[in-house]
Amino acid sequence: MKFDIPYPPTKKGKSAWNKRFGMNAYYAGKHPMARKRDAEELHTLAILCMKKAHIRRQMVKGPVEIRFYWNDGLDVDNHAVLGKGFVDAMKHYILPEDNRQWVRKVSHEFWDGDCIRVEIVPFGSAS
């Protein structure tokens, strides 16, 4: 299954998004209440996008791999906060938990799309 998460529509908006959710903001000591607001917003956004993609609230049957595809100007390793927020949103929506029993691998890759692509595939599948 897969779904897309839109980036802010403007270059300025995308830049603000990167500054807010990139790892550098967290390393700089982002306030815990700001982190909580960020997490809530990312959870809401992911759930809305899963619903828009017609992904039903139904738990996976076995372990999965989650693949993120990014095109926002951040370094690939700077997406950890976003990835965690989106995986946490999947918990109890399509994932029973986000532990090693259910999520065996998370990857972050670049692509040329105009959104964040999220793919959830059975662990060990080739494509």
Structure commentary:
The protein is an alpha+beta fold. Helix content is 38%, strand content 22%. The protein is built from four helices and four strands. It has helices at residues 11-21, 23-27, 32-52, 80-90; strands spanning 2-6, 64-70, 103-110, 115-122. Strands 1-4-2-3 form a four-stranded mixed β-sheet. Helix 4 links the parallel strand 2 and strand 3. The mean pLDDT is 95.
Break the fold down into its secondary structure elements and pairings.
Elements: E1 2-6, H1 11-21, H2 23-27, H3 32-52, E2 64-70, H4 80-90, E3 103-110, E4 115-122
Parallel strand pairs: 2-3
Antiparallel strand pairs: 1-4, 2-4
Helix pairs in contact: 3-4
